[in-house]
Amino acid sequence: MTETPAIYGATPQSDFESQYRRILEAAGCGTQAELAALLEIKRSSISDARRRKAVPSEWLVKLFEKVLINPDWIRHGAGPKYLNPADTGQNPPHIVRITEIRPPQECSAQDLFNELVRRALQAPHLAAIQKTESGGGRQAAEKKDGS
What we know:
Elements: H1 16-27, H2 32-39, H3 43-52, H4 57-67, H5 71-76, H6 109-122, H7 126-145
Helix pairs in contact: 2-3
């Protein structure tokens, strides 16, 4: 067999060389030295990553912080290349949220209840319902008082 077998589960867009090319393209770097300077790491770290055929997560974080490069685009070639900050005039906070996704069968009753409450409080129609209820409740109270 003369060709190298694909890594199990990897798509052609997710292999190291594709990710590395996307990093160089989006960061505007032509060499390992330029990329090392941008990431504030040694060139040998890039050589090590190439030898291991793995893009370190720290690179993704640093590229997002410095140039707003979308980590999903680097990893999979999907989505926008750059993520734009909100139009607030401020730099976006650098918050990484780790979401644990489990099937409902593996969740406790409390976990399920908490998730339902969270979703209910984030529902877009909630504000309209609250306005209607607060306005209606005030009118009913005013009628009882005779005001």
